[in-house]
Specification:
This protein is an alpha+beta fold. It contains 6 helices and 14 strands. The strands form 5 sheets. The protein has a 5-stranded antiparallel beta sheet with strand order 1-3-8-5-6.
């Protein structure tokens, strides 16, 4: 009997030892439900006093940012406004972390709007007592709807405070790691089988500062490219079109080194070309060349006709000259 009890106890201990601890509504294990990921792009984040690199405190990278000059008389206050209005329900946790120079004095407050309370509640207060650990986490003491968080840091080692991440673990206000994907996910939307960019910014591939809806620093391989245009070149064939003479074209080339209505080499090298506009202009030049060819063809045909008439006239003159010579020969007899 004793052996069975020992065996059961051993199995139970092993199960506890190897059992996996999961995040639940009441037990945060990881940062997956941190609603402050990418807070600077999702909410309104401001700071007063010695300044941290705000994006770095919400990107999940755990890189340490050190800021000097933080004292009780010149504290740093970071305010996050516009948090999702979701009740903390069974539990939510607020904190910060670093691997060096942790804040020794700080205060964390939350603005609770639940049931119209609209009050600032103290979540943690170490403004008058020293704190010595490298990270801090505390359960929100009063359940509510916290739409703002305020972190105030009063002191560190010799006035320097190190921070890696600020977080608000709120299991019922987000899905795992969704905050980290927000900058990309919020800019795209699935509409049927289509993936549509929904933001008003630009997309860059191989380029850090795109200036157009799509900038690509490289080669685009495509079977077909369709370009919309606001006009077309058939105006060249209208009667009112003032076709430059070949003499005018020659003069423009000699003076400027490129065709009329086209970009210069310097402009193309500086600004590139617009495919739609360039195709319109190239077709314009092709249509102008067509008109020149038609004109020359008419002139050639006219010259041919004149040549034929001259040949006919010459034949007639030769015939008359022969008759004249014949008459002269008769008269001599």
């Amino acid at each position: 009997m004793m052996k069975k009890i020992i065996l059961l106890l051993s199995i139970s201990i092993c199960q506890v030892a190897i059992g996996q601890v999961l995040t639940t509504n009441r037990n945060p294990v990881g940062m997956e439900h941190n609603i402050l990921f990418n807070a600077v792009t999702r909410y309104t984040v401001t700071q007063e006093g010695p300044a941290f690199s705000l994006p770095g405190l919400f990107d999940g990278s755990m890189y340490v940012y050190h800021v000097g000059g933080i004292t009780s008389s010149t504290p740093t206050t970071i305010l996050i406004d516009g948090l999702p209005p979701a009740h903390t329900q069974a539990g939510a946790w607020v904190g910060w972390t670093t691997r060096s120079l942790p804040a020794s004095r700080f205060k964390i407050e939350g603005y609770d709007t639940y049931n119209g309370a609209n009050v600032w509640r103290v979540i943690a207060d170490y403004s008058a007592v020293d704190y010595s650990a490298y990270s801090f986490s505390v359960a929100v003491p009063v359940g509510g709807v916290y739409t703002k968080l305020k972190f105030t840091f009063y002191n560190g080692q010799n006035g320097t405070v190190g921070l890696s991440e600020l977080y608000f673990i709120h299991p019922e206000a987000t899905t795992p790691y969704s905050g980290l994907l927000v900058p990309a996910a919020n800019n795209w939307k699935n509409i049927g089988a289509d993936l549509v960019a929904t933001n008003s910014g630009n997309v860059g591939i191989g380029i850090n500062a795109p200036k157009n809806k799509l900038d690509v620093n490289g080669t685009i391989h495509s079977r077909e490219v369709k370009v919309d245009t606001q006009n077309w070149s058939d105006f060249v064939f209208k009667k009112e079109y003032d076709l430059p003479t070949l003499q005018e074209v020659e003069k423009h080339i000699n003076e400027k080194g490129y065709l009329i209505d086209m970009q210069s080499e310097a402009e193309v090298l500086k600004d590139g070309i617009n495919l739609g506009d360039m195709n319109v202009k190239l077709l314009q030049k092709i249509e102008e060349l067509t008109l020149y060819v038609i004109q020359q063809n008419k002139e050639i045909n006219s010259l041919k006709l004149e040549k034929q008439n001259l040949e006919i006239l010459k034949c007639g003159l030769d015939s008359l000259q022969a008759e004249i010579n014949s008459l002269k020969a008769i008269n001599k007899r």
